[in-house]
Amino acid sequence: MFYRPEEGHGLPHNPFNAIVTPRPIGWISTRGSEGDNIAPYSFFNAVAYVPPQVMFSSTTAKDSLANIRETGVFCVNVVSEALQQQMNDSSAALPRDVDEFDAAGISKAECTTISAPRVADAPASLECKLTQILQLPGEANFAVFGEVTGVHMRDDCLRDGIFDVLSFNPVSRLGYRDFATVREVFSLKRPGE
Question: Taking the model in full, what pTM does it have?
């Protein structure tokens, strides 16, 4: 099968986000003048090492984007298997003045290098200062880039000096309503190593 996106695919559901999988979930927490906010974004990834940088994409003008524009900071929280339900609950469309941390029963802690909340129980959290927001083609598509200014890792996720994903089983987004949990890893050496 081949299709041109502008002509449609003819399938019952759009296959695009099922093709680009698995995708890590950026569980973005922010603070604005109307309170704290947290929401999951499945168009998320790390984009540079030095300095460390991340990006996520918002496909509507959500509260997260408004708060980041207001404050210039955000925090990315890693979603573990144990937190998958709270992550999903935090995706509810709630009024701007409702704190999703409270609504979804998520434990909150303060960030260290920025003025924003983070998920206290997350395996890791990345405190970020905004570097740029790009408006992408489409009605309300925005890519948000940030430089990591602080990194929190739970001590129980460190094994022999390595951040061990099998200690918390990260959740990733697939297509449609599907998610996956990492339960197995393997290593590959690059040619010449």
Answer: 0.95
